[in-house]
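Can anyone check this?
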Amino acid sequence: MARPLRILVTAFGPFPGMPVNPAQRAAMDLLRVRRPALSGVEIALEILPTRWDELPRLDALMTRRPFDAVLLLGVAARRRRVCLETRAVNAARTVPDAAGRHPPGRRLMTNEAEAFSTTAPALPWVATLRRAGIAACASRDAGRYLCNAAYFHALAAAHGWPRGAGAVPPILFVHLPGRSGVPRGASRAGLARALCGQLVALAAEARRRNANGPGSGPEGKGCGARAFSSEVDTASREENASMQESGAIAVSQGERKTL
């Protein structure tokens, strides 16, 4: 009997002035939406501490229990749209984390590539979000703080899996905009339904890859570590020209919930 599909959803915890991080709230909201397409799918929610020294925790999670797909959520306070990140870079800004500590170096991982592109078909999913009434765009800049770091670590773990270990899982980071995490013109419930739609899409993509066998990636191809997208929505350039990732985030103890 085949094992059930496994999807990991991550978000960051609360930060000063806001008892619940909008990304954490959105993650919990989307898991309350019931979709028949997700019936039988194991979904694990991990609330990550916003600390540089906690990144190995994500590494261990990815290694200990390989997932068929991963959706990471974060907040970028200066953005106006939901941004689907198409790459993560091997770099960190010297910005303190919630514990007041700085990253150990300017590179996140010394023996890894300069950048990894997403292993999920992000661009078509931007159009899906727009059809759902969510202002969305693709972005090539996930920042240099812990959102980018978590994304890079997740992609590095997937690229590091041995050949023959299974299909490359679709992994996607989604930045939610503003202090509320809900783009203008959308409701919290509407955002939850749209993000749940992303889970459905991730599950469908994971099933397709698993059926195609080990090494399968987008369109049945392997995923190159430096294959950056050149078709990113031009709207994201406007976002990235003026935005910075939100400031250091304080976090409560990590929390995991499996549904």
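Reply from J.R.: I decoded it. The chain has a mean pLDDT of 82.
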